[in-house]
TrEMBL record, chain A:
<comment type="similarity">
    <text>Belongs to the PstS family.</text>
</comment>
<dbReference type="InterPro" id="IPR005673">
    <property type="entry name" value="ABC_phos-bd_PstS"/>
</dbReference>
<dbReference type="Pfam" id="PF12849">
    <property type="entry name" value="PBP_like_2"/>
</dbReference>
<dbReference type="InterPro" id="IPR050962">
    <property type="entry name" value="Phosphate-bind_PstS"/>
</dbReference>
<keyword id="KW-0813">Transport</keyword>
<keyword id="KW-0732">Signal</keyword>
<protein>
    <recommendedName>
        <fullName>Phosphate-binding protein</fullName>
    </recommendedName>
</protein>
<feature type="domain" description="PBP">
    <location>
        <begin position="53"/>
        <end position="345"/>
    </location>
</feature>
<keyword id="KW-0592">Phosphate transport</keyword>
UniProtKB/TrEMBL annotation, chain B:
<feature type="transmembrane region" description="Helical">
    <location>
        <begin position="160"/>
        <end position="182"/>
    </location>
</feature>
<feature type="transmembrane region" description="Helical">
    <location>
        <begin position="109"/>
        <end position="140"/>
    </location>
</feature>
<dbReference type="InterPro" id="IPR051124">
    <property type="entry name" value="Phosphate_Transport_Permease"/>
</dbReference>
<keyword id="KW-0472">Membrane</keyword>
<feature type="domain" description="ABC transmembrane type-1">
    <location>
        <begin position="72"/>
        <end position="299"/>
    </location>
</feature>
<dbReference type="Pfam" id="PF00528">
    <property type="entry name" value="BPD_transp_1"/>
</dbReference>
<feature type="transmembrane region" description="Helical">
    <location>
        <begin position="20"/>
        <end position="44"/>
    </location>
</feature>
<dbReference type="InterPro" id="IPR035906">
    <property type="entry name" value="MetI-like_sf"/>
</dbReference>
<keyword id="KW-0592">Phosphate transport</keyword>
Length: 377, 311
């Protein structure tokens, strides 16, 4: 009795592992056999999506950790629709661009667009150079935790003063002037910053440096430069520190705030909060960088904009692709992937998964036009 | 004495089992040396670009030495405070379990202490930042108000409790089980005859422990403490989560601006580091390696001297 059950169990185990092996083989095969004759489920998926099924089985990307959460949704949805496995390795922007330029990965994610030097390298790696496409926009909120104050308004100079630790108590006249209706306590201000090197810090200091150069003298940096504040690891650490402390204020991805209120920031005459629409608007109100290759959409954000309904503290992340790959199939696949991430559906998926701000219709159509160059060879 | 030695080694041919055993033991010893040398060489080679780089290219712009100095200071400070807090308590626990507690209680307590050692450091980190640090905030405020004239408690007190003192306390809790478990074993090894002799001479229980148990176990306790110190120096996850690292060298234990520790600094900045930044972090790793090595070396010297002195 006992031996027979164990034998049955062993047989079942053998069947399972054989099935798993078969499955693994099946999963591998489409990358090699693209004529798609006898492949299984993945091929069926791609026909259902109406695509012409001539995509690579796997494509690899690497780069900014900013896009990691979005890629968790994008990779799953893209595989469902096209049957292509997308691997995205969040190694950081710099190292992602390096890997892309050396041919290690098919596309890169990066919080900064390619430099002129890197563009020159791209001419060797790609058939016709590479392009930057801004597909990911994430508003950075100024979150705070101050009892009795639900609506805080800040000007760039006052925000810079607080973060530079020049303004040290909440009832400082500079803050009171901007918030005549609020009852500000005399609690000391604890500014909270990232303790790790971060693109969020870089974008935030870029904003402070552009809008309040007198109050913010530390320049644009990745490592928080002011000593003595509360420092925490990652967005979650910052949000946790702001929540746990009292009189705390800091910068963090707007989607991760939880119950914390976000300050509204003075832009021109009005005060704007970190809504997705206001964040996406900055891309349309900023100028494109000149002298870039055809199809490239590199944007120098106009942080000092006074345009109504624009929130200037955002983080923009690019996807970088070749114009023409040695293997045209890879080009088709990369174009399909970026086409998907740019699409309304892809942007919505990222917004739900990562809290990004969906890009505007105008920018989308520009990116779609650029993508035609990716498949040319 | 001298007659037994040649009989064992020279007299007859050695059996194969003997050869195999001595061979594998030697190989293991050589292997550990090779691994150690390999790690040292790797760190040195990878850190080299940062060591020779001009000062303004190092993160912070003031050179490698000024980059490493605050984190070295933070590492030593947290570890020293943790040791000062943990060692007396650990020895107390060990003595209680080995000499005071009723047998049944001592066994149960021993298990509980050993269990503390099995908690993963990231759990200590979460506990430290979400529970322990917040619970300490009122204490820090009290310290800043009433003992603010002591430089250690100058304040202003952190409102999140993520201070160097909290990090040290978490470290103390983490190294407690290691030190107390090893010390307990050493105290239990005290020869029964020594203890009974002390009792027979009219010593109280405390005097018996003072004159028989502690001198016998001293070198063991030092070794145990050094193991604990090693863990405290290298602890990464818990410190990374608990400590608010935004300051330089400071003895102020309860405010928000604290120096990082070497391990925490590496953990924080490694994910986004490339090129020279990476070399700088590896140079920090090299420093930690050398520091741990030096501490172990000093501990060895101390233990040898203690052994020589006590017998």
């Amino acid at each position: 009795m006992r031996s027979s059950t164990s034998r049955a169990a062993r047989a079942a185990l053998a069947t399972t592992s054989a099935a798993a092996l078969a499955l693994a083989l099946a999963a591998c095969s489409p990358s090699n056999e693209t004529d798609g004759g006898g492949a299984g489920g993945s091929d069926g998926g791609s026909t259902a999506a109406g695509s012409d099924a001539d995509l690579a089985g796997t494509i690899n990307g690497a780069g900014a950790s900013t896009q990691q959460a979005a890629f968790q949704a994008w990779a799953v949805n893209f595989q469902d629709a096209y049957g292509t496995t997308v691997n995205y390795d969040p190694v950081g922007s710099g190292s992602g661009r390096e890997q892309f330029l050396s041919g290690g990965v098919d596309f890169a994610g990066s919080d900064a667009y390619l430099t002129d030097e890197e563009l020159a390298q791209a001419d060797e790696r790609c058939t016709d150079g590479a392009i930057d496409l801004p597909v990911y926009v994430s508003p950075i909120a100024i979150a705070y935790n101050l009892e009795g104050v639900d609506d805080l308004q800040l000007s760039p100079a006052v925000l810079a003063g607080i973060m530079a630790q020049a303004i040290t108590t909440w009832d400082d006249p500079a803050i009171a002037e901007l918030n005549p209706d609020a009852e500000l306590p005399s609690t000391p201000i604890t500014p909270v910053n990232r303790s790790d090197d971060s693109g969020t810090t870089e974008n935030f200091t870029e904003y402070l440096d552009a809008t309040a150069p007198d109050a913010w003298t530390y320049g644009v940096v990745e490592t928080w430069p002011v000593a003595g504040g509360e420092a925490a690891q990652g967005t979650s650490g910052v949000v946790q520190a702001i929540t746990n402390g009292s009189g705390t204020i800091g910068y963090a991805d707007a989607s991760q705030l939880g119950d914390l209120p976000a300050a509204t920031i003075q832009v021109g005459e009005e005060y704007v909060g970190p809504t997705p629409e206001a964040a996406a608007a900055i891309l349309d109100n900023s100028t494109r960088v000149e002298g870039r290759p055809e199809g490239d959409i590199a944007i120098d954000l106009d942080r000092t904009t006074e345009e109504s309904g624009t929130y200037p503290i955002v983080l923009v992340s690019y996807q970088i692709a070749c114009k023409g790959y040695d293997d045209p199939q890879v080009g088709e696949t990369v174009a399909a992937l970026i086409g998907y991430t740019t699409s309304e559906e892809g942007q919505q998926a990222a917004a739900e998964q990562a809290g990004s701000a969906p890009i505007s219709e105008d920018l989308r159509s520009d990116i779609m036009t650029s993508l035609e160059l990716v498949t040319s060879s | 004495m001298t007659t037994t030695t040649p009989a064992l080694s020279g007299g007859r041919r050695r059996r194969p089992g003997d050869k195999i055993f001595s061979g594998t033991a030697t190989a293991s010893a050589v292997l550990i040396l090779l691994i150690l040398a390999g790690v040292g060489l790797f760190l040195l080679a990878e850190a080299y670009p940062a060591i020779v780089a001009p000062a303004d290219e190092i993160s912070g712009g003031r050179g490698l030495v000024l980059y490493l100095w605050p984190i070295l200071f933070g590492t030593v400070l947290t570890s020293v405070i943790a040791m000062v807090l943990a060692v007396p308590v650990a020895v107390g626990i060990a003595l209680f379990i080995s000499h005071y507690a009723p047998r049944r209680l001592s066994q149960a307590l021993g298990y509980v202490v050993d269990l503390l050692a099995a908690i993963p450091s990231i759990v200590y980190g979460f506990w430290g930042v979400q529970v322990f640090a917040l619970a300490l905030v009122p204490l820090y405020q009290w310290l800043a108000e009433n003992l603010g004239w002591v430089p250690l408690f100058a304040g202003p007190a952190s409102t999140t409790g993520r201070t160097i003192l909290t990090a040290s306390l978490v470290l103390a809790v983490m190294i407690l089980p290691i030190i107390s478990a090893l010390s307990r074993e050493v105290f239990l090894q005290t020869p029964r005859l020594h203890e009974e002799a002390a009792m027979a001479l009219g010593a109280t229980r405390w005097e018996m422990i003072k004159y028989a148990v502690i001198p016998y176990g001293r070198s063991g306790v030092i070794s145990a403490s050094m193991l604990g110190l090693g863990r405290a120096l290298g602890e990464t996850m818990a410190v990374t989560l608990v400590l608010s690292v935004s300051g330089g060298v400071s003895f102020n234990l309860i405010n928000t601006g604290n120096p990082a520790t070497i391990a925490a600094d590496i953990a924080l900045n490694f994910p986004e580091a490339t090129g020279l930044r990476l070399s700088t972090l590896i140079a920090a790793g090299l420093l930690l390696f050398v520091l741990t090595f030096a501490v172990n070396f000093a501990a060895r010297a101390l233990v040898t001297r203690q052994k020589g002195g006590s017998t």
